[in-house]
Amino acid sequence: MKRNASVALLLSASLLAACSSTSEPLDKKLDYKTDGPKPQGASLEVPPDLTAPQIQNKYTIPGSGTASLAAMDKAEQQQAKAAPVPSADNSGVLSKVDNVAMQRDGNQRWLLVKGKSAAELWPQLKAFWQDNGFVIKSEEQDIGLMETDWAENRAKLPNDGLRKLMDAVGIGGVYSTPERDKFRIRLETTANGIEVYFSHRGMYETYIDEGKSETMWQPRPSDPQLEAAFLGRFMMRLGLNEDQARQEVKQADAPVKNARAQIEGDTLQVVDGFDRAWRRVGLALDRIGLTVNDRDRSKGLYFVKPAKNELDPKGKESGGFWSSLAFWKSSDDKDSTSIKEGAEYRVQVKDAGEGRSQVQLLDSTGSTLNNSLSKTVLSKLQSELQ
């Protein structure tokens, strides 16, 4: 990707990022914009929770021939009676959800929403991310998975006079930061309500030659604070005011508990009951770069593949975006312990009783893997589940 930012701009963006990491999640400055054009037709969609404009014939002359004033008044009254009464769901205002709370376990956060079905939340989630400058790259409502495209937080750009001038003449796009973000959204239906998860993936652009003429995208750690910022904003979207959302975020910032995950042989032992372990493993998989294509909660199975290289056009030769994580890729393509391109694996979560669970990596046939690949994947999960 073409690099437009100057060295001074990159330094200032880095300083802004460093400063923002110490503030509360809802204080983060967010102004995202996705590179490239939006999907065709997106601008013409009727926003969720808004009804399509009603086509009325109130000025049509009733009957044939001439119409009297009394006849016209009578027709208008009949149409008024037939018109739907505005409600919280069709008046253009998102219906308020009283029972929404932020949950936290370790450095993982999610929302628990009561009184709404997954089908009702789905269009609100889609509109929320679009309104925040993201393009929806993929959505699978039947399994509760949505993913945004990569986007740039332009709030990290300096807001100086030169940029304002270039924005005014329509060439503000020459300013760019060396960071991109995307999010994976997941819904889980539980006995207590709908759980909403936002998992962040980030990357930064770096020079790969001494002459600084060529760049490559590299992964950067997921940002739990950024996840919390968007979760808090979505709570406000659901009807909470800013003070209520801040209070929920603050209550969720409980101290991190002691280590609760240990590797024993080919199994990761987790000090969590099945329900909690299931949700935490799902979010951890997104964070470590294993894409969940499907899941079967009744069997405790996540069907996963390594996330594809999406931005670096050089792909394998330059290392690619996710390849530098290196836990699924061996320098020897014949190494049986490396994840093969396009291969599918399974991550199984089992209830071990007494508030404990077990996590294993399986191959596509359901057989347990016990090799260096399994140990590395479980090690990555262990770090996320502490």
From TrEMBL:
Lineage per the UniProt record: Bacteria, Pseudomonadati, Pseudomonadota, Betaproteobacteria, Neisseriales
Listed Basic and acidic residues bias regions: 26-36
Region named Disordered: 26-52, 71-92
Keyword annotations from UniProtKB, A to Z: Signal
Keyword Signal appears in the UniProt entry: yes
Protein name as annotated: Outer membrane protein assembly factor BamC
The keyword Signal belongs to this UniProt entry's keyword annotation: yes
Recorded name of the encoding gene: bamC
Signal peptide range: 1-17
InterPro entries assigned to the protein according to its UniProt record, in alphabetical order: BamC_C, NlpB/DapX
Native species: Crenobacter oryzisoli
